[in-house]
Design a protein that fits this description.
This protein has about 60 residues and is mainly alpha-helical. The protein is about 50% helix and about 0% strand. The chain is built from two helices and no strands. It is rod-shaped and about 50 Å long. The chain starts with 6 loop residues before the first helix and ends with a helix. The relative contact order is 0.14.
């Protein structure tokens, strides 16, 4: 989280992780359960520039 990644980048990283865990469960049967079912997106603080952009859209 301290690398200042954008929300989109975090979504990509998490979706790749979920897909890899899903595939480890089936078809490869390396895991008994899919641990990705219990993950969620981390909350992150917006930068000043992101807040300004968000307020301009409203």
């Amino acid at each position: 989280m301290d690398k200042n990644l954008t929300n989109h980048t975090m979504e990509i990283i998490i979706s790749v992780m979920k897909k890899s865990l899903r595939m480890a469960r089936f078809p490869y049967e390396l895991l008994n359960t899919n641990l990705a079912e219990y993950t969620s997106y981390p909350k992150r603080k917006l930068t000043v520039a992101e807040l300004a952009r968000k307020n301009m859209m409203i």
